Amino acid sequence: MVRNSRSVRYDTTPFDRYRVPPNQNIWFMPGIWLLCRLMTVGMHLKVRKVHMKGLKPPFLVLGTHHAFLDFVVTPLALFPHRANYVSELEGFENYGEWLYRQVGCLGTRKFVNDVALIRNIRNVMARKGILVLYPEARYANVGTSSELPASVGKLAKYLDVPIVTLQMQGNYLQSPIWNLKKRRGVVLRAEITQQFTQQQLRETPVEEVQRRLEGALTYDEYAYQWQQKIAIDVPWRAEGLEMPLYQCPGCRAEMQMQTQGAAIFCTVCGRKRIMTKYGRLVNEQGKEDAFSHIPDWYEWQRVQVKQMIDAGQYCLDVSVEIESLPNAKNFIPLGRGRLVHTAEGFSLTFRDYGETNEKTLLFPSLTMTSVHTEYDYRGKGQCITLSTVDNTYFLYPLEAGFQATKIQFATEYFYKRQKAAIGSQKTS
After folding, report:
1. DSSP states of 342-364 as a string?
2. What is the pLDDT of residue 21?
3. Strand (E) positions, 251-356?
4. Which end of the chain is more exposed for a tag (fewer CB within 10 A), N or C?
5. Which of the four pLDDT bands, split at 50, 70 and 90, describes residue 422?
6. Cα-flanking dihedrals φ and ψ of residue 44, to 5°?
7. Is the separation of the CB atoms in 359 and 138 below 8 Å?
């Protein structure tokens, strides 16, 4: 891959965030619905509609975010309506801006405050459209929901339109982010529910709106698999699981987990677990323990990161390979840089495209509720992204110490700790 090549001219024009998105092209809709139906053949998709009778646009749809399959199930759940979708810019770059706008997408960046996006969402509502938003802003790491930003309830109140939730099940199980190979035998379910009429929304305090939406968008895919006895018996079913489950619960070694076939094991202490066809982890004798439910292991790691931070033992300082995405046209290779993560936030030192001197961008902890993570982005390995309103930086590790899930846990805890500190100062 060419890095900082003077022979290649890249387009650095920022993406036009303020451009009003068109309605979904009505001539595209039959093809979209047919394609989505074909892509779910054999998955026995059933859509249940609750309190949706008589509901007409405008309204806001908030969906759970499991995997790419979400974008296939959602149009079928909304049939026969068409909608606009909030999408990250990688999709625009990958499929082309013209096509993405024709299918009704609004471009944005993850974990930034984007005033232009709010304005365009408001424009969709004003023309009596439907807007689909996946507020978790990333796929599920281990099939469980991420915390919703506190701004979701505020957005709902601001828009003053009916609020609909789309709870999907099975999408993650079919292609989890840590191994995107398709799994057969997964059963898909979706429930689309009108949570608030316009009048109910007006009468409900924002705190209660937030609480109800959080409850409606909570999920656990491994609990769903176990309860429904959905058998996934492909022999490679655990391969890649070491990305979200990076720390051994036995010897506490980090980044020493490996997978092979249906097994996940620690290369330090040798402890091994087997993933059953129903998504449970058992020891070599077939017995379960405290970490048999995969999300329990994942959340245990979060606690370890919190304890490390509280003890003053967390600090990330690594060399990274950087690519930027300023628009929907091209990634720009920027070469090596330095990523530092502390309680104050991220600092990224690098030489930007076309510049001769290094600069450092700061991303304060208080501005980042979380960070976007990838486990094998376009075949390049794990990475995280940091964004300004006009650029996104994709950061790939060049040395040991970088683990995307651990960085995510730390980012979320730093944000909460700073918010709590500010709250304490206001009440004192």
Report:
1. ETTEEEEEE--TT-SS-EEEEEE
2. 85
3. 257-260, 263-266, 272-275, 281-282, 316-325, 332-342, 345-350
4. C
5. confident
6. 50, 45
7. no
Angle, CA of 408, 186 and 239, to the nearest 5°: 50
Q: What phi and psi values does residue 305 have, to the nearest 5 degrees?
A: -65, -40
pLDDT value at 76 more than 80: yes
pLDDT of residue 3: 43
- Residue 342 burial (CB count, 10 A): 15
Residue environment code for 240-254, b if the CB has 16+ CB neighbours within 10 A, otherwise e: bbbbbbbbbbeeeeb
CB burial of residue 324 (10 Å; 0-12, 13-18, 19+): buried
- Neighbouring CB atoms inside 10 A of 151's CB total 14
Question: Would you state the pLDDT for residue 20?
Answer: 87
Residue 168: per-residue pLDDT: 98
Which is nearest to 405 in space by CA: 318, 298, 267?
298
Q: Are 425 and 419 in contact (CB under 8 A)?
A: no
Using an 8 Å Cβ cutoff, are 360 and 348 in contact?
Answer: yes
CA–CA separation, 100 vs 72, rounded Å?
Answer: 14
213 is written with which tokens? 């939406």
What is the Cα–Cα distance from 151 to 199, expressed in whole angstroms? 20
Spell 109-132 as b/e; 16+ CB within 10 A means b. bbbbebebbeebbeebbeeebbbb
**Contacts by 331-335 with C-beta closer than 8 Å and gap 24+?**
331/93, 331/394, 332/10, 332/12, 333/1, 333/2, 333/3, 333/4, 333/5, 334/3, 334/4, 334/393, 335/3, 335/4
Cα–Cα distance measured from residue 65 to residue 134, given in angstroms and rounded to the nearest whole number: 6
pLDDT on residue 271: 96
Token code pair at residue 339: 């990523």
Category of 146 on φ-ψ map: left (φ > 0), alpha (ψ -120 to 50) or beta: beta
pLDDT at 150 over 60: yes
Q: What are phi and psi of 344, to 5 degrees?
A: -75, -20
* Mean pLDDT, the chain, whole residue set: 94
Identify the pLDDT of residue 7: 58
Residue 45 CA from chain centroid, whole number: 23
Tell whether the model's pLDDT for residue 74 goes beyond 90. Answer: yes
In this structure, of 284-288, 346-350, 424-428, the range with the lowest mean pLDDT score is 424-428
Question: Residue 2, exposed/middle/buried by CB under 10 A (0-12, 13-18, 19+)?
Answer: exposed
